[in-house]
Design goal:
Largest sheet: 4 strands, antiparallel
Shape: elongated
Distance between the termini: 39 Å
Number of helices: 4
Structural class: alpha+beta
Oligomer: single chain
Radius of gyration: 22 Å
Length: 179
């Protein structure tokens, strides 16, 4: 039971991490989490080669630790397909976050909904694996019929709890995108 719960918890946390990378109308350092910069031949996360700051609601500034990397950082941001155009002044890279169009917002909500559904399926798969394990234990004589029913009900309640949590995370992200 504890193993199933920890797997479901990790699934919800993975969804939250994935939602952090979906761009909304506001500037956020987390949209650059998947950006990798070619640092002397090694793909390195952007936050390890420079400082990401948000001076305004729609502006991100990246200050590289090593000024010679400025063009590599700029290329990496363009390659990441975030729909952003970085510009550099030789010292820092400025990225203005354009406001989202209505169509783009709908597209992002659709993407978020599909992602949430994939994670709900993962939770249901964990439930199925747990039920299979309980049935094996019953066949092996470790559980009685009544214990099997009780444990199956507990697992269903756990599944419902985490699916509700996924729904709440999705609704919050949808609201954030539509702002």
């Amino acid at each position: 039971m504890a193993d199933n719960e920890s797997r479901m918890e990790k699934t919800v946390n993975a969804l939250k991490d994935e939602y952090n990378t979906i761009r909304t109308g506001r500037a956020s350092a987390s949209i650059f989490d998947k950006v990798r910069v070619d640092y002397y031949g090694t793909p390195t996360p952007l936050n390890q080669v420079g400082t990401i700051s948000i001076p305004e609601a729609r502006m991100v500034v990246v200050s590289p630790f090593d000024k010679s990397l400025i063009s590599e950082i700029e290329k990496a941001i363009q390659k990441a397909e975030l729909g952003l155009n970085p510009s550099n002044d030789g010292k820092v890279i400025r990225i203005s976050i354009p406001p989202l169009t209505a169509d783009r917002r709908k597209e992002l909500v659709k993407q978020a909904k599909n992602t949430a559904e994939n994670y709900r399926t993962t939770i249901r798969n964990i439930r199925r694996d747990g039920n299979d394990e309980l049935k094996k234990q019953q066949k092996a004589g470790e559980l009685t019929e009544d214990q099997l029913k009780t444990e199956t009900d507990k697992l269903q309640k756990l599944t419902d709890k985490y699916i509700d949590e996924i729904n709440k995370v999705y609704e919050a992200k949808e609201k954030e995108i539509m702002e």
